[in-house]
Amino acid sequence: MSSETLTKKLLTSNFGKIDSGSIDEYISAGGYSSLEKAFSMKGEDIIDEIKASGLKGRGGAGFPTGLKMDSVKQAEGTPKYIICNADEGEPGNFKDRLLMENDPHQIIEGIIISAYAARINHGYFFIRGEYMNSIKIIEAALEQSRVRGYLGDNILDTGFDFDIDVHTGAGSYVCGEEFALLVSIEGKSGRATYKPPFPTTCGLYNKPTQINNVETFCNIPHILEMGGAEYSKIGTESSKGTKLICLSGNVVNPGLYEVPFGVSVRAIINELGGGIPNNRDIKMVQLGGASGPVIPDDMLDIRLDFQEMREKDLNFGSGAIIVMDERINVLDILKRIIKFFHHESCGKCTPCREGLTQMLLLLDRFIEGTATKEDLALIEVLIETMSQASICGLGQAAPTSVKKVLQYFPEEFTGRIHTMDSMTV
Ligand SMILES: Cc1cc2nc3c(=O)[nH]c(=O)nc-3n(C[C@H](O)[C@H](O)[C@H](O)COP(=O)(O)O)c2cc1C
Ligand code: SF4
Questions:
Q1: How far apart are CA 326 and CA 8, in angstroms?
Q2: Helices 104-118 & 95-102, crossing angle to 10 degrees?
Q3: Which DSSP symbol is given to 281?
Q4: What mean pLDDT do residues 349-378 have?
Q5: Which of 303, 325, 347 is the last residue of a domain?
Q6: What distance in Å separates the CA atoms of residue 100 and residue 120, rounded to the nearest whole number?
Q7: Distance in Å, CA 422 to ligand 1 centroid
Q8: How confident is residue 149, by pLDDT bands cut at 50, 70 and 90?
Q9: Phi then psi dihedrals of residue 310, to 5 deg
Q10: What does the alpha-carbon distance between residue 308 and residue 312 come to, in Å, rounded to a whole number?
Q11: Can you tell me the distance from the alpha carbon of 408 to that of 206, in angstroms, rounded to the nearest whole number?
Q12: How would you label 138-152 residue by residue, b for 16+ Cβ within 10 Å and e otherwise?
């Protein structure tokens, strides 16, 4: 397959073509026409189009967006809120930053359409604090939208009032998790909590709240423009539309690529990424980012598809693909990943807080060559305990890379178990 047929530019169609600081250029490229179309429709009809499109959330969990919108619309209680999750703390991901920097109005248009569909009057952008440039661009774009009458009171004389505030994160990874994010906006310490209830019924200030990822919102204007049925022709049976891929690590051409669902990980690495420098062999590829699974070279033909990945107990998270060639030290990489989560754990629950400390100690034993068979068994129990008993996705997913190395590269652990023979050398 050529690299042209591998890519499909929908969300990135304006990249490099319009000045992201100019609302006029966005409008000239067809921007805000989907919003005007939305204003001629009933809220439930907009949601039906989103349902028909088959759009699933791009923030990692893949929850159907139309269903989420419907739940918020049906939920009792006012005011209702809508939040764009632009925290993007997962190492290996940079797509939301590039969407904000290259086409901010595409996101804003998607948020306004969604708010109108569920009759929500107040929105928030939760932007990672380190993304100072994105924050500036989004704030300027919001102001332009207000001046043009796309935000504020009585938008385009429709009688609909809606505005968006910007809230910046303070450097905590867990604040990308929806409950930690909500309490952070409320001014409390960013910690996750038990579910249910879910934010759709009990979110910001205990009111119904729609939270979606930046990339999810970007799809909304395109779905309204094309119609849900037409949009659903892109991709595969279980995964509709395009996906932004953040390709990094040992590849010739790292960067952002937009592909239709259904392309293989190998095609992304070889055709779009240009393969591995100096034709080295691939040791492993991490999908989704630090919290995602690692797979060996002989599994790279797996396609970007929610269902196909799930059947193999894999996921592509929010779209990072990190390539590691034959030179890497697998246990060192695992230690670095676990150290990251140990640092980011909010400390609220024991399986995550203590589990990560214990996982680091156990990994050290394997790295130093002092581990025993019992340590290996302990790692397996720890993975299970953390993934089953942690309160939020951070602790549940933190040991994923260790679990997958044990599954696909068991010799990395078993080869380092200390034996009586090695003591006598
Ligand atoms: C630890 C943790 C961090 C997360 N970070 C982000 C993030 O930075 N951006 C994001 O969109 N979703 C993140 N999520 C997922 C959100 O909780 C939520 O599912 C998502 O924003 C929903 O949007 P979607 O339906 O459009 O995917 C994170 C989840 C967890 C458990
Ligand atoms: S899993 Fe970790 S980050 Fe999530 S609530 Fe528990 S301690 Fe906090």
A1: 31
A2: 100
A3: P
A4: 97
A5: 325
A6: 22
A7: 46
A8: very high
A9: -60, -40
A10: 7
A11: 43
A12: bbebbebbeebebbe
Give the span between the Cα atoms of 247 and 273, in whole angstroms: 7
Per DSSP, the three-state class of 336 is helix
Question: pLDDT tens across 292-318, in order?
Answer: 999 999 999 999 999 999 999 999 999
- Smallest CA separation from ligand 2 atom 8, residue: 346
All residues at 6 or more sequence positions from 249 whose CB lies less than 8 Å from its CB, including other chains: 285, 286, 321, 322, 323, 324, 325
Q: How many residues does the chain have?
A: 425
Please report which confidence band the pLDDT of residue 425 belongs to, taking 50, 70 and 90 as the band edges: very low
Average per-residue pLDDT for the chain:
96
Q: Decide whether any atom of ligand 1 lies within 6 Å of the 87 Cβ.
A: yes
Task: Give the distance (Å) from ligand 2 centre to CA of residue 195.
Answer: 13
21 and 78 inside one domain: yes
Residue 347 CA to chain centroid, in angstroms?
Answer: 23
Strands (E), 163-241: 163-168, 209-213
End-to-end CA, the chain: 53
| Predicted pLDDT of residue 418 | 84
Among residues 197, 231, 265, the one where a domain terminates is 231
DSSP state at residue 172: -
pLDDT reading at 421 higher than 90: no
For ligand 2, which residues put their CB under 6 angstroms from it?
174, 191-192, 345-349, 352-353, 390-392, 394-395
Contact 360, 424 (CB under 8 A): no
- Is the CB of residue 37 less than 8 Å from the CB of residue 215? no
Residue range 261-268: average pLDDT?
98
Domain count, the chain: 3
Predicted pLDDT of residue 121 = 98
**Each residue's pLDDT tens digit, 165-196:** 999 999 899 999 999 999 999 999 999 988 89
Asked whether residue 42 is domain-assigned, the answer is yes
Which pLDDT score is estimated for 424? 45
β-pairing, 294-295 with 282-287? antiparallel
Q: Considering the domain boundaries, does residue 5 fall inside one?
A: no
pLDDT at position 211 over 60: yes
**CATH number for position 348:** 1.20.1440.230
